[in-house]
Amino acid sequence: MFLLDDILFLPMNGVLWICNEIHDAAEQELHNESDAITAQLQKLYTLLEAGDIGESEFDVLEAELLDRLDAIQERGALLEA
């Protein structure tokens, strides 16, 4: 009986495995993108401290990066749900 169950559920197990792999890949991509944006923010702060960019330019670029980071966090919350 268990062998028959294994044979019948084999296709479903394969589909579930594929879905889990896709989910894991999406989470990893979001994490990598988040890390890249954080690195860009750090570089932006360094440029501001060095005087290479002005306050107004910094504010615009920082707002864009923070908006992107918020969007990533929202997508991550959707993946977890």
Short structural description:
It holds the Pfam family GvpG. This protein has two helices and no strands.
Give an overview in words:
The structure is a single chain. The chain is mainly α. It has one domain (2-80). The chain contains two helices and no strands. It is rod-shaped.
Return the structural class.
mainly alpha
Q: What count of domains describes the coordinates?
A: 1
Which runs of at least 5 residues are low in confidence (pLDDT < 50)? none
How can the largest sheet be summarized? none
Global outline: rod-shaped
Helical fraction equals over 70%
Q: Give the N-terminus to C-terminus distance in angstroms.
A: 35 Å
Estimate what percentage of residues fall within beta strands: under 5%
Overall pLDDT confidence: 89
Order of helices and strands: HH
Number of helices: 2
- Annotation, overall tally of beta strands: 0
Rg calc:
21 Å
Protein name: Gas vesicle protein G
Organism: Desulfomonile tiedjei (strain ATCC 49306 / DSM 6799 / DCB-1)
Keywords summarizing the entry:
81 residues, mainly alpha, rod-shaped
